[in-house]
Amino acid sequence: MLLESAVPSSTIFGSEFLGTMVMVMMGTGVVANVTFHKTKGYDAEHCS
41: closest CA among 30, 26, 27? Predict the structure, then answer.
């Protein structure tokens, strides 16, 4: 059956939650680096 899984749904939910949390924290750090004065990335231009 397609819905049967060897991994419990709580493990899948937990790993998805932690992965999303890491991505949000990294994105917040990037925005803070570009926004705050006295940082190396302040007022950085786009990569392209």
Answer: 30
